[in-house]
Records
---
Amino acid sequence: MLSSNNDRDAVSHQLPVWRRFTYGVGHVLNDLCASMWFSYLLVYYHFVISLPNTIAGVLLLIGQLVDAFSTPVIGYLCDKTNCVYGRRKIWHLTGTICVIVSFPFIYHVCFKCEDVPVAYLVLYYGCFIALFQFGWACTQISHLALIPDLTSDRNEQVGLNSIRYGFTVLANLAVSVSMWQLLDHVNSPNAHSSSDTDTPSNTTSGNTKINAKDKDLFWLVSVGTIGVGLIFSVIFHVGTKEPVMKKRADSSTGKKDDTVIYWHMWFKNPQFYLVAVIYMCTRLMVNVTQVYTPLYMLEVVDLDRVSVTDVFCH
């Protein structure tokens, strides 16, 4: 069951600028992690820790399947939740905690996993990936569902969505620029050529490809991603006040409220299928581009390590 205008104490007037800002940054942690997830997961598993291509793809698939299952379930439970902290914010907080405790391990070499079967690595990374994707879905769904609770004005809702997406773009750019700088200056021939220009071999002695020596680089970026995202999540929880839910007047009579849109009603709306197909195709194009462009540049075109960020930074 979805919320109606009678289900919430929503404001119809214009929200203050600071309320828009605190809401808009509530998804930054997810955006930063998603940029790392789609753009560099296969690169890390294939080039850094040398997992077989199939296994790396299986781990990515595990994450997407968990996300696909968690999203509708969390959406349903989010509507049913009754919490003094806020039915949306409690799920957002739960998701934030899950993301924080799981994401750094996705980009960290498995502890004491030398000479272990590949199945063990799938289990090890798969558990952290599943927890991360569950937390990611919790944060995403609760953050989006909070918009109609904050305001019933359609223009304000569109504005909040725009601010949210604006921070998504900035988060993607921040991750790309960070990776660009680190790949160009850490474990790179460029890091040595400026100081040892007198030695001819220095320009070629460094590896121009991403390799096992870059494991600390990826872990550093993942930890930095969590740190920055956590700051914005705190701003969201401190600055965003979720309106108190009102009880429906007919709850004691057992009668259905005609103003409420139940979940099964969506399947009778043709626009539901139209929007779903358009959104699915758009996300498919974006995700495939993010996931496979870095691999294409490194494997097929045989470009250097910095090329994996060029398409996202320029």
---
Amino acid sequence: VAICAPGGSESSYIDKELIESLPALKVISGYFVGYEHIDVQTAARLGIRVGHTPFVLDNATADIAMTLLLGSARRIVEGDKIARDPLTLTYPGYTFLGEEVSESTIGIIGMGRIGTKIAKRALGFDMKVLYHNRKQKTAEEERVVCATYVPVLNELLQQCDFVVLVAPSTKETYRMIGREQFKAMKKTGIFINVSRGALVDHDALVDALKNGEIAHAGLDVTDPEPLPRDHPLLAMANITFTPHIGSATYATRKKMLDVTTANIIAGIKGTPLLYEVPETVHAK
């Protein structure tokens, strides 16, 4: 027996009760990179392998990060509303200004595969690249993307015009961005999150945007998803949302489906999964 675990809703949680109810279960194949919706500890204990889909969505997710960064900096959503408004008779001109992206400073929190892809894109805009990570990258890895390591998170935040959060969702990163971090940012700073909503204190983000501690935010992810329809963030003009579409291109989703299918087939056959999560690899 195999389970395809798409994620993204409560109905797709693969919990202890479900796993233990399927004695013939051999493999659980997650459709996304993240697998927090799967009880991997129970799977590992029972010798059930768990697959996921890293690597194939790195480019698409880096693209949505830059989309949110550019859209937030140049106030694209607000501008679109002005251009469409039937009451608009003249354009705002000098009264509608955004932030410069070219030759600015970007801070990337989490310099893994996706963070590195974002850094490469930032170089195309002649941006200075700073990063914060659990471990410093090698000198060669830093050279390739012209990145400088900043070991103290708040020191990175103080220096950056744009902050992009792309760290993994773990117990250590839960609510890692809160009031202290937003206060450390520039008042003209723009915050982007394409990782997981649980890494950010949304109440603190509301206050930071309302009180002018930062200029704008761009979120592809929230906690919960979607936010309650009366959440104050949804009423703010200085925040741009996308509905968790980091990997949502035709090409990337097909690659993810191919990997998911390959993991299922391998699990049933008893051969190595294309991409297996470390918890079940180490349990063997």
---
Amino acid sequence: MIAGLVLLVFVRFSTANIPNYTEHSFTQVVDHFNAAPIVTFQQRYLLTEKYWTQGVSHALFFYTGNEGPIDQFWDNSGFVFEAATHFKALVVFGEHRYYGQSLPFGNQSFDAGKVHYLTMDQAIADYAVLIQFLQSKYKFTRTVVFGGSYGGQLSTYMRFKYPFIVDGALAASAPIFQVAGIVSGELFWNGVTVDYNNSNSECPVKVRQGFKRLLDLDKQNSTGWANISKAFNLCDPINSTDDVNHLIGWIMNAFASLAMADYPYPTDFLGHLPAYPIDVCTVSTVHSHILDILTIRCLVVTS
């Protein structure tokens, strides 16, 4: 079964045939690792039986939800459904605790003394319990978990920690080796640079020039900060080097977000993006003035 899934990675990705879902809730305990006191919350999950036939189908495809509302991942994970058509699988997307509607303490979930239940161990325990509940209802005999980025980490850890529940895991772009310290943290940014370079080799050169110009302006203190504020049309003006560094962080994240969502089809995952958004960005970037490059004006497609 897993070998078949690996082969399916080469099938055309598409969002055209994403099915509708039914929304459900499941009663989870807030703390899976201490006996008392027992406090519960409602975990949201999405489900489709479109490909499932009771008594004929045998597999559950379970998406281990990331840090966000689970419907966003449903709408942008077409590969799971393409694979499900081949294996006639039941498809379920579980929402991560403390995100979306799965708030253990409602509006007080992030208060001191309550947020410490937001851990990976607790999250994958949620998924393990939910899968066992679903198995008792649907009687599937195989479970494969899916996830991307942080969600891919969760899928991998589930296979390690709950091999008696999870038969296989497919983790896309999961930073497992970086988190474990096996590879350098710079590897991610090297990958982002490669994406832009593959689109247009002039783009990384000009972006580096833009960052250098930004740092040079910072050295001019108030005069430079005023120029930066004007160039970026900031609501709150730059008043310190800390402000400049904060702005640089936002700029880096903008470039990284495009790299992470550089899909061959339009998405609304990290913004309203066209197909191959990096190609759209680099066309504008290489024809911009040095500081204009970093204003990311090419990203108007996300607004």
---
Amino acid sequence: DPIYFTGLASEPGAKSMTVSIWGYRETLISQYWASFTVDFKDLLTRNCEDGDYTKWLAHSTNTGDSTDGCMLGYKEQFLRLRKSSVCRNGRDYVITKQPAPCPCSLEDFLCDFGYYRPENKSECVEQPEISGILEFCFNGTQEQLQTTGYRKIPGDMCEGGILLPRKIIDLKKKCNNSSSLVNPPLDVPQSHQSVPTSPHSIVIFVTIIAILLVIIILGVLLVKKYVCGGRFLVHRYSVLQQNVEASGVDTEEKLESSAFSSSKPMYHDDSDEDLLE
């Protein structure tokens, strides 16, 4: 029965003759998975010979060019099976490759400091704002750069071809304040270098801390006065109100009756005025 193919399992670099495939089958009411293992031992019965291989150049795009297949100044040529060869390599087969360096070309170089590549061009030209002798400060010493505008790409392994000299001369002089480029020492990480602090910044920092402390103290005093004190008074009033309501006596009537029945002298705001009249 046919299956719907979904995957194939073959270990990269493995020399086994078996391959596993899996998929699923459909019925009228359900679907179910199916897996099969194919053994090519009975099909590939002959070991490969020299005539079954052909040379293949990796990254090849133009066989007539001497730099064809070059990648970072390096190219590799392999032996691989012909499409028409029906044979097996065997477990003792070792991949054969022929590495070779490429001649240097402009593609193996980057534009040096003070130079750039115009659009759709391979040549590096000098920047208009930088001309003449290039001197810069590096690690506290002044150096001079003598270049034709190119520097080799790191890791490029080309040999011969175009020769583009480049030299850095140590002028044996310490940098002054007018240096255009000043780099920190390489042995000290950028994050560990000390940053000078001015007295003005210290005063600002202390002022901010003092303002924050004053705000915190005022906040604590306000909370104690209006929040905590208010809760205590509300609690006392609420307890008194519950006791009055439980006795079944109206609060205003109880206060008026207690005021008239009391034998103690009472104070009125207009008592002094009555005596004067």
